[in-house]
């Protein structure tokens, strides 16, 4: 869909939740809007950011190969975000962790981290989930993550489908 047509699909319901849903598309989750019978949206487009939803590739996974390989990053898997304001490479750094992991498997892309770091520093509860990535024990490819207010993540996943 063309960027100029995206805004009509990026709405919130009367409760303030996004009308978007994350739906199963085989090897990944995709953003789907029910408006006008349903449309898939570009996860890399700027429209999502206008309603506080950010997508990012996991960066630096080559430096964190063991943690990346041990993380289960298949579609729908939760991802923990941890601010690293003292990171010597980027004061806006946000590390990505598999639940319960001791080491990060990667970082939010630098350009995306700036606005997210501000939100985290203000105390906003953000959630994250993998849109696509390898299962534990594999390091092929990369992980693509969606980050938003925790309530928005929950709402977008509310289709009730388990992901395996």
What does this molecule look like?
By secondary structure, the protein is an alpha+beta fold. It has a single domain (3-156), classed as Alpha-Beta Plaits (2-Layer Sandwich), CATH 3.30.70. 20% of the residues lie in helices and 24% in strands. It contains five helices and nine strands. The longest helix has 12 residues, at 110-121. The two termini are 29 Å apart.
Instruction: Give the spatial strand order of the biggest sheet.
Output: 1-2-3
How much of the polypeptide forms β-strand, as a percent range? 15-25%
Average per-residue pLDDT, rounded, comes to: 89
Helix content: 10-25%
Low-confidence stretches: 160-164
| Class of secondary structure makeup | alpha+beta
Q: H/E order of the elements?
A: HEEEHEHEEEHEEH
- Overall shape: it is globular
Distance between the termini: 29 Å
For the biggest sheet, the summary is: 3 strands, antiparallel
**CATH architecture classification:** 2-Layer Sandwich
- Tell me the number of helical segments per DSSP (H or I, 4 or more residues long): 5
* CATH C-level name: Alpha Beta
Number of strands: 9
Q: Predict the CATH topology.
A: Alpha-Beta Plaits
In short:
It contains 5 helices and 9 strands; from the N terminus they run H-E-E-E-H-E-H-E-E-E-H-E-E-H.
Keywords:
Alpha-Beta Plaits; 164 residues; three-stranded antiparallel β-sheet; alpha+beta
Element layout with pairings:
Elements: H1 3-6, E1 21-24, E2 29-33, E3 39-41, H2 47-50, E4 54-57, H3 65-70, E5 80-83, E6 94-97, E7 106-107, H4 110-121, E8 126-132, E9 144-149, H5 150-156
Antiparallel strand pairs: 1-2, 2-3, 4-9, 5-6, 6-7, 8-9
């Amino acid at each position: 869909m063309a960027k100029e047509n995206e805004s009509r699909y990026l709405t919130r319901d009367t409760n303030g939740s996004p009308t978007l849903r994350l739906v199963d598309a085989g090897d990944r989750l995709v953003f789907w809007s029910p408006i006008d019978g349903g449309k898939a949206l570009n996860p890399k487009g700027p429209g999502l950011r206008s309603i506080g939803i950010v997508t990012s590739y996991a960066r630096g996974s080559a430096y964190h190969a063991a943690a990346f390989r041990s993380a289960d990053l298949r579609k729908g898997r939760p991802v923990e975000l941890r601010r690293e304001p003292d990171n010597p490479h980027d004061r806006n750094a946000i590390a990505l962790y598999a639940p319960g992991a001791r080491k990060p498997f990667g970082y939010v892309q630098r350009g995306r981290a700036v606005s997210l770091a501000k939100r985290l520093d203000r105390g906003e509860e953000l959630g994250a989930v993998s849109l696509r990535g390898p299962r534990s024990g594999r390091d092929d490819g990369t992980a693509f993550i969606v980050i938003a207010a925790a309530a928005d993540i929950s709402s977008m996943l509310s289709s009730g489908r388990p992901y395996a």
